[in-house]
What does this fold into?
Amino acid sequence: MRSKKRLLAICQNGLLAVYSVFALFPLIWMVLLTFKSDAQMFDTAFVFTPTLENYKAVLLRTDYLRYFCDSVIVSFGAVLISILAGVPAAYALARYDFKKKENVAFQILSFKFAPEILVVLPLFMIYQKIGLYDTYLGLIWVYQLITMPLLIWVVRGYFEDISVEIEHAAQVDGYFWWQIFLKTLVPLIKPGLVSSALLAFIFAWNSFTFPLQLAGIKVEPVTVAALKYLASDTVHYGQMAVAATISALPAIIFALLIQKHLVRGLSFGAVKG
Amino acid sequence: MAKIELIGITKKFGKITALDNIDLEIRDKEFFVLFGPAGAGKTTILNTIAGIQIPDKGDVKINGEVANQVDPQHRDMAMVFENYALYPHLKVYDNIASPLRSPMHKKDEAFIKEAVESVAALLRIDKLLERLPSQLSNGQRQRVALGRALVRRPKAYLMDEPLAHLDAKLRNMMRSELKEIQSNFESTSIYVTHDFMEAMSLGDRIAIINKGSIVQIGTSDEVYYLPCNEFVAQLMGDPEINMLSCRLDKKDGAYEAALWEFACVCTVPKDKELYERLDACGAKDLHIGIRPQNIKYRFDPAEDYSVGTVNSFEAIGNKSVLVVKLGAAEVRIIVPNDLQVKLDQEVYVKLDMERALFFDAATTEYICRYDEASFRAHAAGQAGKE
Amino acid sequence: MIPVVPKKKVGDADNINAPPLSARIRPYLIVAPALIITIGIMIPFAMAIYYSLTSYSFRLPDYSFVGLRNWIRMFQAPEFWRAVWVTLRYASFSTGIEMLLGLGIALLLGNLNNRFSRIMRVALIFPLMVAPVIATIIWQLMLNSSVGIVEKFLNVFGVYNFPWAASHSTAMMTAVMIDVWVNCPFIIVLILAGLQSLPKSPFESAKIDGGSAWFNFRKLTLPMLKPYIYIALLFRLMAALQEFSIIFALTKGGPGDTLMNISITAYNTGFQFNKFGASLPYILFLWVVIYILAKQIAQRWQAAQRQASGKSIDERGEAG
It folds into this structure.
């Protein structure tokens, strides 16, 4: 009986290990690649002399930092707008019972499922006409399709978790509704708000389809820039790896920060982890 | 310091009628108790007075002025919520201080410090001021909620089962403290409870509520001795009042009640008012309510005593309940703790008809009792003391 | 005890209990900024429908209203049906593999409780955090025949120059593999959360009743996981049906038309061939399908949720 259990445990750990290799090895190898010089690129596998040459090349001699900044500006701006407009909307959806409430809520959610190309094709034309093509504002606005539904749905759940009696108590105490909102409710949803904001930031950061067509010259997030690297004539694989690593790093760091609220955020509040 | 009136208040939640045409008048400086079973609508009434809920119909008047549109911030009340509603992110000190920091009632920090600390000392939570609500027991949280209300001098205190989660000793102590605070502060208090002993001991007047309607309003003596129907009679009293069915017959000008459950014919004691009411009512099928302390018992036969057997004997604190099987009925009698009985022992009981309550069996409404006049006078005197 | 916003009825002018205007419109005011922003995004949808009925092209200066011509042509075009086929294959393969694999790994993580599994619960999220574009780049580097580690690995077994994304037969598999790599963690996280939220008592009583692990799984675990499975399916399937980044970064739809799903086809028609008006029906069609499918799955999810919570009401006791 004991040995059967042990065999089972070994099998389970083994299967998990196989998947873990599949999941994590590419990332590890990519990081390794960033330290490989062009000379040793083709011949060696794991044993090589590490060099910082690739990092120097990408960070100092190309516009990569500019692309990185563009990503920061656009993602941060998108999340900020979503918070300012989305948090009150989340509150309204949580507390008030008005006509067509669930319709409005589902409508906001459905933006997430809309095909990106469907948005890109007409917006490409509209943005050029109204001068939002290749601008920060243009991307920030379109990114709302990614960030706003997430924020509204998840933060709504956090508001619903707060007993409405606390608001009543604050009213009886003598506070007015904007004070109750800012001084009582916001502090209570802060952890949830922060983690949804970070998750929304990650999704905005990872967006490719929108910036591909709606920006490109003046504004270029890292996702689009990285692909351009691949298409260039002389491919420096090490530098490619650096581009990929730097692009992926912020998302991974943020993910570590928001672990506790990850499930709720990923499922748009449908699942309370 | 406020007189509060509810006039014709009706409130519906979807299909459920929470309050149905409620009329209440709470006098200035009165300690008014709302009493009733769970779901009766007591909390809804409190919310309506506080302004948290707006009634569908009817008026809320505070000091004579209609206050329906006045929001809770401006009504100058303090409320203790059944589920405490403490601010989870604030320490106990800040929770209690919260009303004194709001724009409506702002005070300086020195004043706040003194007020909070004295209230905390009163409620025995002065050692907990630095903790968060999550670090407190239920009883402690409840006291913090009380503290948050008591730290101010509002027009009225609205308290929703504020002692429900305290242990018996603390509850008794807090009951007397609350009464004292209320008379010292000279404030109007509206107190919700489903504990009838609390209601009787604390309330100047009690309103009994059931399924969204007011059943009876009166002093504790009034609702206990002169309940308006069987529901009220059964609600007040522990152990519950005994209800027996009987048939009324007039013989030689005297009413006689022939009991259904066991063979006994009791004479209804002669009282002008009692007889007049029975005549007026005309009902022949009645229910007789006898409180457990109004039944005489002995262990050897005697005249006018009916025989029964001991069904159970329960000690409930400083008294005991003897349940006697009497024909088809089970009768509860209050007996001393040291009474020695054996199960199925024979016991002889006699109902004290002078203390019986008569109800119309069909409508369950109260008809009369012997010497009702003196009870009414006593109750009026009690009310007059307010 | 959510405050219901009462509706103003006729004759309310004298009703002292009708809430003031400011209170009644407050919820709409609060939602307004969000709605304004999203309406701004709704406009493209409306325009897409309009322009799909025109012959708009980026090259030609003017266009004409052509009615349903674009639509009819699309349904007659072999490229359309090819795109539908590719879309279905891609979506079902990737979603199917992700769901099964994700479920399996989640079960493993749920059963094991050693250091390794605990670390993996955190670490296995990483692929999900990488942008699909970047993930495609990483995999292309790995599968590269000159420098790729996978190539070097396969060399050991005597396999050289495996075509991966370059061949008709293996391109779909490569794209699906990358999709699975990125998105499987999503399923894992959700199912794991579901497993950890399952009540213990049914399992304890099942243990007493005796019964194989497989039986318990089928009759207890799986039904209670249904809401989580539906949510995971909803998000992943809708995304896979309109996948663009991975395929674009991998081969832009090639080789030939192996990976030309609806999104890529619409993109090419619109931006490569500049047939803007003709490209829109493709993507509008996809959107309608996704919308209908999403509602279906969402309804099933809500039903599963109600069933799951219905079972535990007796455990929670009656509301006071």
